[in-house]
Amino acid sequence: GNSVTQMEGPVTLSEEAFLTINCTYTATGYPSLFWYVQYPGEGLQLLLKATKADDKGSNKGFEATYRKETTSFHLEKGSVQVSDSAVYFCALSAMTTDSWGKLQFGAGTQVVVTP
Amino acid sequence: DGGITQSPKYLFRKEGQNVTLSCEQNLNHDAMYWYRQDPGQGLRLIYYSQIVNDFQKGDIAEGYSVSREKKESFPLTVTSAQKNPTAFYLCASRSRPRGGGRDEQFFGPGTRLTVL
Known about the structure:
The complex is a heterodimer of chains A (115) and B (116).
Chain A (H helix, E strand, L loop, with lengths): L2 E4 L4 E4 L4 E3 L1 E4 L5 E7 L5 E7 L5 E4 L2 E4 L9 E3 L8 E8 L9 E3 L3 E6 L1
Parallel strand pairs in A: 2-12
Antiparallel strand pairs in A: 1-4, 3-9, 5-6, 5-10, 7-8, 8-9, 10-11, 10-12
Chain B lengths: L3 E4 L2 E4 L5 E7 L5 E7 L5 E7 L6 E2 L6 E3 L9 E3 L8 E8 L11 E2 L3 E5 L1
Parallel strand pairs in B: 2-11
Antiparallel strand pairs in B: 1-3, 3-8, 4-5, 4-9, 5-6, 7-8, 9-10, 9-11
């Protein structure tokens, strides 16, 4: 079945540091890939997505590239801020006609940015 | 503004009681979903609905029930049969793309249920 594996947290780093969160997946066919962010006590917000190989999703300084050859979708940001402290979820949606967009989530990675 | 609302934000329940969590969306989405979130475990799918009057079990449906009588509403009932109901519950919706899963899900703010 489909699965998503992402690096365990918490990831603690200083403001303006470079952030990478690794995400790899297992899926049949060609899934769509997503990164969601969850701030404390809130629901999930879509951060970025990619729907085919070599697509790069980007938003708010975050980027992730859909790498089919390595089945990866790593999240990166060049200079983090304290406001980026949150839990980040990698997810995939199977590209089948009857899947109805069910999302398979990774376990989440907590990021803590200190001033 | 279009979006998903969940109520209440916090809910307390005594053991042995059923409780219903509300989820409403005004995005005109066909598909709706319920997830359970426990610390360190990500999100697990409880139930989902593709269209009105139809729903399917997700990965952890035991002890839960749902209904989908209106397109905009998808309430979740946590029954007394759910052995460990304390968790954060998230509702989501999605438009109906034909032939695949390119579109994202939109999430509500969540309901935190605590069993006393």
